[in-house]
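Run: sequence + heme C -> complex structure.
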Amino acid sequence: MRYFFLTFVILVVVVVATAGKRGSISRKPPLEIFPDMDKQPKLRPQTRGEVFANGLSSQLPVDGTVARGSAFEDSPVNTGKVAGTTNYVATIPMPVTAQLMERGEQRFNISCSPCHGRMGDGKGITTKFGMAVIADLHDSKTRKVVQQSDGEIFNTITYGKNLMGPYGGLVSIEDRWAIIAYLRALQRSRLGIEQDVPADVLPTLLGPVAPRAGVQKK
Ligand code: HEC
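>> structure
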C-alpha cells in the first residue's frame, strides 16, 4: 500500500511537470490527447464568411419571421383576448361555418366527451372510473358556462381550469374555436327557449305536431 502511494505521488509530479497544469501559460500549442470536438470550423457572428453568397457570417431572419410573443399575441384568434388587453373576446373571432361546426362536433366527441359526455352534461365515461366532479356544460341551475364568453372557454381549453387539465397542446387553435361553436349549439339544444326560434319558423313548430314514432299521446 505504501509503495502504491509513493508511485502515485511520483506519477502525479511527473505528469504535472511534463504536461503542465491547467491554466499554465505556454507558447507551444497544448498537447491534446482527446481533442473531442474542441476544434470545429465555424463562423464568428458579424464577420466575413465565405459560406453565404453575400459574404456575411450573420444573416437576416427569413421573410415572415415573427418574434416570440409579438404578433402572435396581438391576435384574438390566438389568445381569446381582445388585443392589448386581458379581456376575453365575447364571441368566436372567426367565421362560424357549417364546416367549422362539423369539425367542432368531431373534435368535441374526441377530446371533450370522454369527461363531459357527448351531450356536454358532464356524464362522460370517465365518471365510471373515479372522475367525480366534471362540469356540466349546460349547468341549468347557474348557467355558468352558458354565460361565459367564448374567450373564457377558449382559455379553459387552452390552459385548463381547477381539476381540468390543459388541452392547448392537443387541440389546435382553430379546433378550439370549432369546439366552442359546437358547444354553443349543444347548449342551445338544451336550453333554447321559444323566443330563440326565428319568428317565421315558429308557427311551423307550434302547429299540429305529428306524434313521433314510439311516443304515445295521452
Ligand atoms: C379528463 C377529463 C376532462 C376532459 C377531457 C375535458 N374536461 Fe372540461 N372539465 C373537466 C373537469 C373535471 C371540470 C371541472 C373543473 C373544476 O371546476 O374543478 C371541467 C370544466 C370545464 C369547463 C367549465 C370551466 C369553469 O369555468 O368552471 C369547461 C367550459 C370545460 N371543462 C370545457 C371542456 C372542453 C371544451 C373540453 C374539450 C376540449 C374539455 N373540457 C375536456 C374535465 C375534463
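>> summary
Residues 111-112, 114-116, 126, 133-135, 137, 144-145, 153, 156-157, 161-164, 167, 171, 179, 183 surround heme C (CB under 6 Å). The helical segments are 2-19, 71-74, 76-79, 98-116, 144-147, 150-159, 173-191, 202-206.
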